[in-house]
Amino acid sequence: MQIVVDLNRCQGYAQCVFLAPRVFELHGEEALRYAPAPPDDQAERVRRAAAACPVQAILVGDRAGAESGKGAAADDR
Amino acid sequence: MTGELTQGRIVIVGASLAGLRAAETLRAEGFGGELTLVGDEPHPPYDRPPLSKQVLLGRVAAADAGLPARRPVDAHWKLGVRASGVDPVTKEVLLADGGRLPYDRLLIATGTRARPWPNPEEARLDGVLTVRTMEDAAGLAERLDAGPRRVLVIGAGFTGSEIASACRERGLAVTVAERGPAPLVGALGGTLGAFAARLQRAHGVHLRCGVTVTSLLGSGGRLTGAEFSDGTRIEADVAVVALGAVRNTEWLADSGLAAGPRGLACDAGCRAFTMYGIVTDDVFVAGDVARFPHPLFEYQMLSLEHWGNAVEQAEVAAHNMVSPGPRRRPHLAVPAFWSSQFGLNIKSVGVPTFSDQVTIAQGSVEEGRLVVVYGYRGRVTAAVSVNRAKWLEHYRRLIETAAPFPPAPGAADRPEAPRVVPSDVPDPKVLSHGPTVALTGHLPDRRLAVVRPAG
Ligand SMILES: Cc1cc2nc3c(=O)[nH]c(=O)nc-3n(C[C@H](O)[C@H](O)[C@H](O)COP(=O)(O)OP(=O)(O)OC[C@H]3O[C@@H](n4cnc5c(N)ncnc54)[C@H](O)[C@@H]3O)c2cc1C
Ligand code: SF4
Fold it and tell me: Which of A56, B74, B149, B371 is most buried as measured by Cβ atoms within 10 A of its Cβ?
């Protein structure tokens, strides 16, 4: 699973932090940090967080370009 | 007509953020022909913003900073292959491995690369790095893990400042050297520059403005320190060169396209210009490499190094590649970007360098929470928030409607008239780092024409 947050859109509402605290966290008052390749056991929580984000800033998907046959070094999650 | 446009061969050169989002949009809009993505990096597209943030803190492995797919693109991926030219007559992309890729329509999304340290011998010293790619960030994170005694960051633009922030968060000693009067001043002007300088010092950064690093010192092939223009020296085991970006246009030198150090020029519909200023109809441009006119900013040619611009411009370019004339769209999005450093969330809408005056419309420097609004000749052209992101939407509307500057009292959180001061955007030539928004056009009454300094 791969995620990216459009941080132009993100308003720091922190719903995602509440729903998937191991993947999303706020640094300071409103700077969102997240793990771009969350572990599989977080997948369900991440999906719920993406659905709950009031500005729909979280994109969840498979890693782009996986079909190119070139994994990014040491990673093909 | 539409039928023809949704068939044929499309080649995208540059397999990063803009290239990927364009490929997805082409398929989403019904392109059923042959699609090829060429990228010189050996990886599928990945996301760069984490590379100067989470990755340097050691929280995220550089290799994990991939991008999620929006949809399958059913493309041929030519990764690890550099495009070396375009033949506009035969309509082929020339590849460095000798191959030729015929196209009906071409998208150029080759982005930028890190500006290298100007002295090649010093640049080769062990411990001298730049941060643009996954490998760069992995390498720097490893150096930081090893606990260097001091890190020198050369250039205090966004990337340099974020790197310094990561070093401080790790508790490492860091010196930041900036030729200009303050960090971020090239992108955000004097008010926020002064704020950023105080912020860095409060976080223990050894900040040196108004000096240049004249040489990097080494011994036995390893970096040992640096010398400044005022004759002083420091010791450092790691030096990160954060002098801005160079646009990847050299490969287009013989293409007949309007490509140069300021980017590849295109119209508002992302169609590339030839060197004669004639618009093409089969070559499109998107992302950091593009230079395009924006009506909100007096049709000046903008070059933006922003994540959001790469996505939005790629979507418009792809749409126009498969749409007949009357259905084509202009790329008019209001520029926007974010940065996080020293625990603060900095967000910008509009073009702060397109300004003559600023006012603090919300909060204050003392609170560490504020919105600075920028005006040019009496209208609002940009706003930057520090830990006040929720307010930006309001100012985006003011920019889009060319609302008067200073903004009406209702738009500010204080009863008295706002204090307006000059925006103090310096001439880019005095900065260490290049500005991340370059106004490359020309205004008669201000020195906004940008010639990116060579060093
Ligand atoms: C460390 C870092 C932090 C950033 N942080 C932020 C941020 O916080 N907020 C923000 O808004 N933006 C940020 N950005 C900017 C953002 O990442 C860029 O705007 C974005 O990557 C642009 O995408 P692009 O696809 O246009 O270009 P690029 O990502 O530069 O991709 C261009 C690709 O084309 C390839 N290429 C070049 N020449 C050739 C050739 N001849 N043949 C084949 N391939 C070629 C390159 O190798 C590269 O893979 C950051 C950038 C960096 C480097
Ligand atoms: S829920 Fe959405 S808006 Fe809120 S912090 Fe998460 S990504 Fe940002």
Answer: B371
The amino acid present at B67, given as its one-letter code, is L
Q: Is residue B342 part of a domain?
A: yes
Is the Cβ pair A2, B67 closer than 8 Å?
A: yes
Q: For ligand 1, pick from B307, B334, B345 the residue to mutate: most ligand atoms within 8 Å of CB.
A: B307
Q: How many CA atoms lie within 13 A of B172 on its CB side?
A: 27
User: Which residues of chain B neighbour A70 with C-beta distances below 8 Å?
Assistant: 42-44, 77, 79-80
Q: Residue B445 falls within a domain, yes or no?
A: no
B133 and B34 fall within a common domain: no
Residues B67 and B130 in one domain: no
**Residues B235-249: tens digit of each pLDDT:** 999 999 999 999 999
Give me the tens of pLDDT residue by residue for chain A, a chain 77 residues long.
Answer: 999 999 999 998 899 999 999 999 999 999 999 999 999 999 999 999 999 999 999 999 999 998 887 765 433 33
- The chain A residue lying nearest B21, using CA atoms, is A64
CB of B97 closer than 8 Å to CB of B274: no
Distance CA B197, CA B385 (A): 16
Among chain A residues, the shortest Cα distance to B43 is held by: A72
Distance, CA of B225 to CA of B154 (rounded, Å): 12
For residue B54, the Cα-to-chain-centroid distance in whole angstroms is 18
Low-confidence ranges of chain B (pLDDT < 50): 442-455
Q: Do B264 and B319 fall within a single domain?
A: yes
Using a CB–CB cutoff of 8 Å, tell me whether B80 touches chain A.
Answer: yes
Residue B82 sits in the same domain as residue B225? no
Task: Determine, for residues B63 and A73 on separate chains, whether the beta-carbon distance falls below 8 Å.
Answer: yes
Instruction: List the domains of chain A with CATH numbers.
Output: 2-75 (3.30.70.20)
Indicate whether residue A46 lines ligand 2 (CB < 6 A): no
In angstroms, what CA-CA distances link B404 with B115, B203, B369, B419, B439? 38, 37, 24, 15, 22
B77: nearest CB among A28, A35, A65: A65
Burial level of B362, CB count in 10 A (0-12/13-18/19+)? buried
